[in-house]
Each structure stands twice: as structure tokens, then as C-alpha cells.
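hey m, so remember when u said the C-alpha cells were messed up on ur end? i reran from scratch. heres the input so u can diff it against urs
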Amino acid sequence: MKVLIVEDDHTVATHVSAGLQTAGHTSFHKSDGASGLNLALEDDFDLVILDIMLPQMDGFTVLEHIREVKPHLPVLLLSAKSQVDDKVRGLRSGANDYLTKPFAIEELLARAEGLAGRGANNAGETKLCVGDLTLDLLRRKVMRGDTEIDLQAKEFQLLECLLRNRGKVVTRSMLLERVWNYHFDPQTNLIDVHISRLRQKVDRTFNIPLIETVRGTGYRIAETHD
């Protein structure tokens, strides 16, 4: 994954760059909005990690210009602004995701890899598969081997989100945003209840469980299972 970091805080940029490189990714850094925009438009990136408060050109303006030229380039906004209005403005401006400072590098990596993988590999898929599990997006049908599994709408969306990010950790906040459209944590047990129901249907009566809990972080469906 090739990532552009546009961040004026050198400490934050170094931290993010080191995390990306440790995970096997390549990163480039610009410390102001104007030079960040120029590089984003001139080069090919899998993802842009974009701060909002930047010198020369703020992140919202950079994002608007990116969307005019590269509408499908994934952009993750990274900001100290945690108010819901700022998150909503960022997402409505075309950001694919929004993460507030301070953050855990593990969550940033999970979000970054999920966005880049979804943009590059999953955009045209009509069926998502892992092992003997198949989710048919067109027919809204889920099969495990020869057995059809009846899922409610939110359960289907949860499973789709996990499968689109197969092999990667999907955090609780990511699930809240992508399934319930909550851009903040409402402090409910929505995810726990729905994941439990999903496991009852997808895993309970089958030999190999597919949905894994990553303690303290979220959930994952592994890329392959023996």
C-alpha cells in the first residue's frame, strides 16, 4: 500500500509513517496543504491520510480538490477536532473515514488497510467469499456450503463489512460508522448484540468458526482457514 501523509505535526507524521512501514507499507509525507494536494494529484496513491488544520491550505479544501480530480481515491481525515459537526463536514466533503487524535496506531492501520483494500480490490465484487462462506450482494443471499443462512438487514451489513476487510481487523468504531452511520460512539451494546446473533447463524452449527474477536480492538474474518 502506498500512502500519502499530509500532516504538519512532525511527531504525528513520524509516528504514522513508522507504523505504516512496520506493517509493510510505503509512505510519503508533506507538511502543508498545498504541497500535499500537488503530490496527491501528481502521483498514484492507494490512500491519503489528511490532517484538517494545515498551513497554506486546510484539509477540507485539499479534500474538495482531490475529489474533483480523483473521486475514487480513499481519504482518511486525521484531526484533533472531535466535534460531531466537524466529522459530518469531513464525511460530507468526501472523506471515506475520520479518525480523531489521539489515536492508537493499530486502529489507524486497520482503517487505512480497510479503505485501501476496499478501494482497490472490492469495488466491483458482487460476491464476497472466505472458506465455504459466500455473500451474494446482488441476490442478498448468504450461503455456507450448501446451507442458506437467513440474515436480518444489519446482520447482512455487518457480515459484508467483515468480508470486505477479510484478513484485517475491523474496529468497533468502524462498524458503528459503516453499518449504523454513527460518527461517534453512542455507548451502546449494538455491536455486541448483532455480532452475537451473526455468530449464532454463521458459526454455531458449522465445524470451523469464521468470526474472530481481536481483544480490545474489534473483529476479523481471516483470509483463509484450514
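this time it looks ok to me. The two ends are 27 Å apart (CA to CA). if urs says something different then somethings off w ur setup not the seq
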